[in-house]
């Protein structure tokens, strides 16, 4: 039963979509198991076409894979239909899409509350995308969520929405002085979505179990990344789900014994979007250099990403937490032209050296990176396809990451295109 988990080892935006697309022709199913349209995957096809995907699994661009939105995802049906229409217009076959009936829906009151609460928090804001992800997951946990399957029963949809808005409208109007939501208008809007989406709604757990029983390859595609995990990330500056390997089992209904490989993706440096601690963040010309050369702007939000040197403490933590078997290091080409390339190998906290992730939020906020400087390289590496074609210092850099993370680096990205990779070990 070969299930493969693909996830991010940092704070997201590592290039997971590119890796999913790279593997897409060799897997039979690609499953999105967490998050919502607060995530974005950018995929560039061999003919130079660029696709920005938010809810659709990146496997949508592979010609044969069945693409699945699992029960752990929160779905904004308006956004999903926009993606379906956009892909269809560009000749992509989306008939292979299956959506779990147990996935929860993002409703208009979720988006409204997300935006108004962030504004209310001011300087203490989390840095959400304002797309209603957190409030939707909050209602899920509070057992008052509305699910994809409810689109198929207008009576249930109206009843659940009335119950939800009984509370949410009071909060919007009395606390935040915002306009209350109209039940009938929302029901009418969502029943319109139901008419178009019903062909894709399915019992996805059974579909995936049957596929595994047949020995087919199932790729479980994470959104966001390890350090944004609700339980294991830099809380409270995290997402509202579990993008780690354990979350793949919960969010797709896959038994843990089915997972045979865990692939983690990491940039050759580090980025983060939104608020929260970031020990290796750069505020100088090197940070600007990484942002400019690496085109570090969010796929979903367009926001500038915070940039810093590679943090081996974070990467090693992600490797151990997720049971990573293969590490993919992307954007090595961005580091070309630097005289020295530092790697954070530990932290200094209150005058003491620590090599593992600090236990408390306070310690992580105060952590100062301990750097080890490696010699850089000047060559353009974008045409390299074998390890031997990489400059000696680039090979040393990758070898040091491998050593510090105690995980083999199987693929090195040397450009944004699907084929711009150095494959050291085959992933499948």
Automatic annotation (TrEMBL):
Subcellular location: Cytoplasm
Function: Plays an important role in the de novo pathway of purine nucleotide biosynthesis. Catalyzes the first committed step in the biosynthesis of AMP from IMP.
GO CC annotations on file: cytoplasm
Protein's gene: purA
Name under which the protein is recorded: Adenylosuccinate synthetase
Cofactors required: Mg(2+)
Binding-site list for GTP: 12-18, 40-42, 305, 331-333, 413-415
Top-level class of the enzyme under EC nomenclature: ligase
Cofactor notes: Binds 1 Mg(2+) ion per subunit.
GO biological process, one term: 'de novo' AMP biosynthetic process
């Amino acid at each position: 039963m070969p299930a493969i988990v693909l996830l991010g080892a940092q704070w997201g935006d590592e290039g997971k979509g590119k890796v999913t697309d790279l593997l897409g022709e060799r897997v039979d199913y690609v499953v999105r198991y967490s998050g919502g349209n607060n995530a974005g995957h950018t995929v560039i096809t061999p003919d130079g076409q660029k696709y920005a995907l938010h809810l659709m699994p990146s496997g949508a661009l592979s010609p044969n894979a069945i693409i699945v939105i699992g029960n752990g995802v929160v779905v904004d049906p308006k956004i999903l239909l926009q993606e379906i229409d956009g892909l269809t217009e560009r000749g992509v076959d989306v008939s292979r899409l299956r959506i779990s009936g147990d996935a929860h829906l993002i409703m208009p009151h979720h988006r409204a509350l997300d935006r108004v609460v962030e504004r209310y928090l001011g300087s203490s804001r989390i840095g959400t995308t304002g797309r209603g992800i957190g409030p939707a997951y909050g209602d899920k946990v509070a057992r008052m969520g509305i699910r994809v399957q409810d689109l198929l029963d207008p009576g249930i949809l109206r009843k659940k929405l009335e119950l939800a808005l009984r509370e949410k409208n009071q909060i919007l109007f009395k606390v935040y002085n915002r306009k209350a939501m109209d039940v009938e208008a929302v029901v009418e809007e969502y029943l319109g979505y139901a008419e178009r989406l019903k062909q894709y709604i399915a019992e996805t757990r059974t579909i995936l179990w049957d596929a595994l029983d047949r020995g087919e390859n199932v790729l479980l595609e994470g959104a966001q990344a390890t350090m944004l995990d609700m339980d294991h990330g830099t809380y409270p500056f995290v997402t509202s789900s579990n993008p780690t390997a354990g979350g793949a089992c919960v969010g797709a209904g896959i038994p843990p014994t089915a997972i045979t490989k865990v692939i983690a993706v990491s940039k050759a440096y580090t980025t983060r979007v939104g608020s929260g601690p970031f020990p290796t963040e750069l505020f100088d010309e090197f940070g600007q250099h990484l942002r400019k050369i690496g085109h570090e702007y969010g796929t979903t939000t367009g926001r500038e990403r915070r940039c810093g040197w590679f943090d081996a403490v974070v990467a090693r933590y992600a490797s151990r937490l997720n049971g990573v078997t293969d590490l993919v290091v992307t954007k090595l080409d961005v580091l070309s032209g630097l005289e020295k390339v530092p790697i954070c190998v530990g932290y200094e906290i209150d005058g003491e050296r620590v090599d593992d992730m600090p236990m408390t939020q306070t310690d992580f906020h105060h952590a100062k990176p301990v750097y080890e400087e490696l010699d850089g390289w000047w060559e353009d590496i974008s045409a390299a396809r074998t390890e031997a074609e990489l400059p000696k210092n680039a090979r040393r850099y990758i070898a040091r990451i491998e050593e510090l993370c105690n995980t083999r680096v199987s693929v090195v990205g040397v450009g944004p295109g699907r084929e711009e990779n150095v494959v050291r070990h085959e992933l499948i």
